[in-house]
């Protein structure tokens, strides 16, 4: 049985991910989370073993800029185990988005492993708006790199950053 209730006054929830790059599906979950928790900590994974399009500092900067007017939403990078990062940050809840049944198995495994590693950590699954259920960072990168439009699927700043990474593929934001 869990030792203590994770929710207290001013409770923070951590929303971890690679965010390479952040999509409107992520933003949707963050805003939903911010309706349930007074403070949300977005934790951006720094994994030197995994090649990313955007280095961790850039991913953090992009997300900080998106939420710059929302003081209840903070962004930090982390490396190592999420269970340890949550403990060190004094956070008792992890938010994860579930888009489809196909996400479930991996998420279920991860939630149980995190529970094993840190019994004080609860995982809360949230559904994004149905219009983002097909969306992933990998698809966004693939579509953009091949010249397709990702407008409305990522924040405008991310679209601009993708334009810098894939010169010649970007659409004018004013078109
Ligand atoms: O970008 P993703 O796939 O949504 O994020 C996955 C993430 C970052 C939440 C997961 O890979 C993670 O927590 N990594 C940190 C290392 C860790 O704790 N591994 C054990 C997970 S049970």
Largest sheet: 5 strands, parallel
The helix count comes to 6
Summed over residues and divided by their number, the pLDDT gives a mean of 93
Low-confidence runs (pLDDT<50, min 5 residues)? Answer: none
Order of helices and strands: EHEHEHEHEHH
Strand content: 15-25%
Gap between N and C termini, in Å? 56 Å
Descriptive account of the structure:
This protein has 175 residues and is α/β, with parallel strands linked by helices. It contains 6 helices and 5 strands, in the order E-H-E-H-E-H-E-H-E-H-H. The protein is globular, with a radius of gyration of 16 Å. The model has no long low-confidence stretch (mean pLDDT 93). The site of 4'-phosphopantetheine has 10 residues, from strand 1, helix 3 and helix 4. 4'-phosphopantetheine binds next to strand 1, helix 3 and helix 4.
């Amino acid at each position: 049985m869990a030792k203590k209730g994770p929710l207290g006054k001013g409770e923070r929830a951590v929303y971890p991910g690679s965010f390479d790059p952040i999509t409107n599906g992520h933003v949707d979950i963050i805003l939903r989370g911010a309706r349930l928790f007074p403070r949300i900590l977005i934790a951006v994974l720094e994994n030197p073993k995994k090649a990313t399009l955007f280095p961790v500092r850039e991913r953090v900067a992009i997300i900080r800029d998106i939420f710059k007017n929302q003081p209840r939403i903070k962004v930090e990078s982390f490396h190592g185990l999420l269970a340890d990062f949550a403990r060190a940050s004094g956070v008792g809840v992890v938010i994860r988005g579930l888009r489809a049944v196909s996400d479930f198995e991996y998420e279920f495994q991860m939630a149980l492993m995190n529970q094993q590693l840190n019994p004080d950590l609860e995982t809360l699954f949230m559904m994004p708006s149905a219009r983002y259920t097909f969306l992933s960072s990998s698809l966004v990168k693939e579509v953009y790199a091949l010249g397709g439009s990702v407008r409305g699927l990522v924040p405008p700043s991310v679209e601009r950053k993708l334009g810098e990474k894939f010169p010649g593929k970007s659409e004018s934001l004013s078109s």
